[in-house]
Amino acid sequence: MLKKWCKAGVICLLLCMLIIPLGACGKKDTVRVAEVTRSLFYTPQYVAIEKGFFEDEGLKIDLKTTAGGDKTMTALLSDGADIALVGSETSIYVQSQGSKDPVINFAQLTQTDGTFLVSREKIDNFNWEMLKGSTFLGQRKGGMPQMAGEYVLKKHDIDPKTDLTLIQNIDFANIATAFASGTGDFVQLFEPTASVFEKEGKGHIVASFGTESGHLPYTVYMAKTSYLKKDKETVAKFTRALQKAQKWVQDHDAAEIAKVIQPYFEDINVETMETVINRYKEQGSFATDPILDEEEWNNLQDIMDEAGELPARVSHDKLVNTDFAEKAAK
């Protein structure tokens, strides 16, 4: 009897040893991500979630839209989020305030500005000189869209203060409505609003601020230094999943991509989604890997400096960690 009991006990022990690892493998680490807005500009992020790339790495993503750079950064700094998806300029602003736990950029999602110049009237042969003497409805002062917009205007020898009437006192959420209501000859808009306006005859896309302003770390994943040290493996997994999504987006057409991420944009028809995704792909807005290089970082600061919004120049190695991205890219 004792012999049988011992044999049964051994079998039971072996089963437990098998079951426990399986259960452990099934457990996923939750990563709280705060995105600055919900946008087709962030297509690779939604692909990574929907295609199961994060899940394959053993991660569960708790994604929240925090509507605005200030709110997104507040969520990160107050431990309301582990990782923030927001413009790199916010990490510079935080650094200038003397943070004891610096916010570090570790993976890049978009590498150009995402806005377009939309005219009220159809223009067959557009040139930037046409903005002189016009009323231009720009983005909020101090934000990256506005800084990139002014940088492009100056690049084309247009002084935003003297060569046109620049309107910047309208909230981001109301800019499109103001233009549709008759304010301005030109407006700087994100997608899909720009394409929707074009389809409805409310405006016409005549230029891209993204192609004009060059490569820069427009939207980046960042985390506090303490999190990167404490949860190093989690950050490595997160970055690997992002790299897989970036490659998948490069290898598939807009129709396939739109189908995958449609659950995140139920109020946008698939045809418009395809137009927007294709436009962003063609102008290289989606980063092809998560590496934020020094040239892009310096271009960002040049644009901020030109706009008078750069507190002080910060070296690439101080606020950027490319270790995770470089390993993922391999």
Automatic annotation (TrEMBL):
Principal subcellular localization: periplasm
GO CC terms: periplasmic space
Keywords: Signal
Signal peptide bounds: 1-24
Cell compartment(s), UniProt: Periplasm
A Pfam family matched in the record: NMT1_2
SUPFAM superfamilies in the record: Periplasmic binding protein-like II (SSF53850)
DNA damage listed as a keyword: no
Keyword Signal attached: yes
PANTHER family referenced in this protein's UniProt entry, alphabetically: ALIPHATIC SULFONATES-BINDING PROTEIN-RELATED, TAURINE-BINDING PERIPLASMIC PROTEIN
Sequence similarity: Belongs to the bacterial solute-binding protein SsuA/TauA family.
Listed name of the protein: ABC transporter substrate-binding protein
Organism: Peribacillus simplex
